[in-house]
Design brief:
By secondary structure, the protein is α+β, with helices and mostly antiparallel strands. Strands 1, 2, 3, 9, 10, 11, 12, 19 and 20 form a nine-stranded mixed β-sheet that branches. Strands 6, 7, 13, 14, 15, 16, 17, 18 and 21 form a nine-stranded mixed β-sheet that branches. A three-stranded antiparallel β-sheet has the order 4-8-5.
């Protein structure tokens, strides 16, 4: 599907996932919207959210991510369709859930209504696409990929797989861990495979999830049960690739038996179960987030282990920061593709993303250490659970409302504050 294609754009975003679409929407919601021609291109067809069935791919959105959608007037329409709040999180290692091996986080400890929301990938895409379709000087092109990128006078020249040629002042790669933009521009990365896959599915449970996210650390990798609004739980189970492939090939009773054993029966009898899918796990960090005329956001710039559920949140913070940076530059009359302009975004996000990647990687390594490390981990879990100030800091940090989160919120609000109430109402989704 192509909507109002222009061959000359200020910003071309490659990738119509939530992060790429969020960059486009935030640019068109800001005070420089009238002077920015924005186009989003994606090789896949437009995503469709279905009320009758739940998408297998879900994200645990933080408060900082929620505020991105609030600024666009979209959060209420997301929430009423199907956003599942979680108010507690229980993390443990071992065969039983007891005080010696468990950390429990509760939103009441920090005076918040929840710790986040579980939201489907397709719902975020559908709401953002709907928003952009109502916006002037914004173009969406689906089912058409990127073929080439080359420098051009005052910008970048691109050709699409459809044969169309266009030029842009800046190209944003929001096209995932296997980024075509990153590959075509030879932007180097450091990457490493975990030799694991994450199996995702939704499962009914005999015991209620109680709006709690449950996570058990196993030697083979973490297992998470995330609460869904329909009473089921979304499962994210990280396993060695060979074991994951074998489980994907099992029938439902065999898979449920293995899942029940891995979960320790914390939510009782399991089943029925939805269709299963899996994706490979890797850590990846771009050495360069930008160069003249090109910037990377989300998984194109960094991929982290899903054990903390922060990948999408980091990507949306990238989107907010880059949109704010480009908006401010446009208002000052600066060249949007200037490496000095894009470097402001890179300086603000690169260190934060790298720190998170290293922290999640270290946590994964810690829980994969052999049996001799179990007593040390138990001591560590018990110490964190008793240290209430540390727990509160961890919760606020995960929500994006700690000191670092406030910096991100300030960055994402920069250049957005002049949007009028009328504009908010015009884009509020039905």
């Amino acid at each position: 599907m192509t909507i109002s294609a222009l061959s000359r754009c200020d910003v071309v975003i490659v990738g119509a996932g939530p992060v790429g679409l969020a960059v486009a929407a935030l640019l068109k919601a800001g005070p420089a919207a009238a002077q920015l021609r924005v186009r989003v291109v994606d090789a896949q067809p437009a995503s469709e959210w279905r009320a009758a069935s739940m998408d297998a791919r879900v994200y645990a959105l933080s408060r900082a991510s929620q505020r991105v959608f609030e600024r666009l007037g979209l959060w209420d329409s997301i929430r009423v369709r199907r956003a599942s709040p979680y108010r507690r999180m229980r993390v443990w290692e071992g065969t039983t859930i007891d005080a010696a091996t468990t950390i429990e986080f509760d939103c009441a400890e920090i005076g918040e209504p929840d710790l986040g929301h579980i939201v489907e990938d397709s719902l975020l895409r559908e709401r953002l696409t709907h928003w952009l379709m109502a916006e002037e000087r914004a173009e969406l092109t689906f089912a058409t990929g990127l073929a080439t990128i080359a420098p051009a006078a005052s910008g970048v020249r691109l050709t699409l797989t459809s044969g169309e040629a266009l030029t842009a002042t800046v190209v944003i790669g929001a096209d995932g861990g296997a980024s075509r933009v990153r590959a075509l521009t030879a932007m180097p990365v450091i990457e490493h495979s975990y030799a694991q896959q994450a199996i995702v599915t939704h499962v009914a449970t005999a015991a209620p999830h109680d709006e709690t996210a449950w996570q058990r650390f196993l030697p083979s990798g973490p297992l998470a049960f995330l609460p869904l609004v329909d009473g089921r739980s979304s499962v994210v189970w990280s396993l060695p690739s060979e074991r994951a492939s074998a489980l994907l090939a099992c029938d439902d009773p065999q898979f449920l038996a293995a899942l029940s054993e891995a979960s320790g029966g914390m939510l009782g009898v399991l089943g029925p179960i939805s269709a299963r899918a899996a994706f490979p796990l890797q850590k990846l960090h771009a050495i360069e987030y930008c160069r003249q005329g090109v910037a990377l956001v989300g998984d194109a710039a960094h991929c982290v282990h899903p054990l903390a559920g922060q990948g999408m949140n980091l990507g949306l913070l990238d989107a907010a920061c880059l949109a704010a940076t480009l908006t401010a530059a446009a208002l000052r009359g600066e060249h949007l593709g200037d490496e000095r302009v894009l470097g402001r975004y890179a300086r603000e996000r690169k260190g934060e993303n790298l720190a998170m990647l290293l922290a999640f990687d270290a946590l994964d390594r810690l829980f994969r250490l052999p049996a001799w490390a179990v007593p040390l981990r138990k001591v560590g879990l018990a110490a964190v659970d008793r240290a209430r100030p540390a727990k509160r800091l961890l919760m606020r940090r995960a929500l994006g409302i700690a000191s670092g989160g406030r910096r991100e919120q300030t960055a994402s609000n920069r250049g957005q504050s002049q949007r009028s109430t009328h504009r908010m109402r015009r884009h509020e989704a039905p």
